[in-house]
Every structure is written in C-alpha cells, then in structure tokens.
From TrEMBL:
The keyword NADP does not apply. PROSITE patterns: HTH_CROC1 (PS50943). It comes from Salimicrobium album. This is Transcriptional regulator. Keywords: DNA-binding. The keyword 4Fe-4S does not apply. Residues 13-67 form the HTH cro/C1-type domain. The lineage of its organism: Bacteria, Bacillati, Bacillota, Bacilli, Bacillales. PANTHER family: HTH-TYPE TRANSCRIPTIONAL REGULATOR XRE, TRACRIPTIONAL REGULATORY PROTEIN-RELATED-RELATED. SMART domains: HTH_XRE (SM00530).
Length: 78
C-alpha cells in the first residue's frame, strides 16, 4: 500500500494584509514578488518558499508560525 500525501500550508496572509490596509500589489512590492503570487497564496493555491515566508513574517513583524501553518493529511492508497 502506498501513502498518498495531501499535506499543505495554510496561511493568514489575507488577514494580516487587510489589517494593515494594504493592497495585494503593496504587499507584493514590499516582499519582492508579483501581485499574482500574493493572490494565489491568499487562496491557499501556492505554498511560498521558506525565504518568502520569512520575508512576509518579517514585514508583518510576526513569527512565521503565526502566519503560516502546516496541515498534515495523509491517506493509505488502496
């Protein structure tokens, strides 16, 4: 039997950005990525690199694990 992993990273980027009254473009410019990257990240369709996660956390003056969390989900295949 194979294990199928469907783990992912959830984030609170949208919540932090809205609290600062920033646009996606403002945040993108601040952390050096495109607006599209912020958009897909906020929809949980993109997991950032560690560097980007730390950049975002640093920008919001928060710990990485306050914004990003690992969700483990694995199932046996078969």
């Amino acid at each position: 039997m194979k294990k199928k992993f469907e783990d992912h990273i959830q984030n609170k980027v949208y919540e932090y950005r809205v609290l600062k009254r920033m646009t996606q473009q403002d945040l993108a410019n601040a952390v050096g990525v495109s607006k599209q990257t912020i958009f897909v990240m906020e929809k949980n369709n993109y997991s950032p690199s560690l560097i980007l996660a730390f950049r975002i956390a640093d920008f919001f003056e928060a710990d990485v694990d306050e914004i990003f969390s690992y969700v483990r989900k694995d199932e046996d295949d078969g």
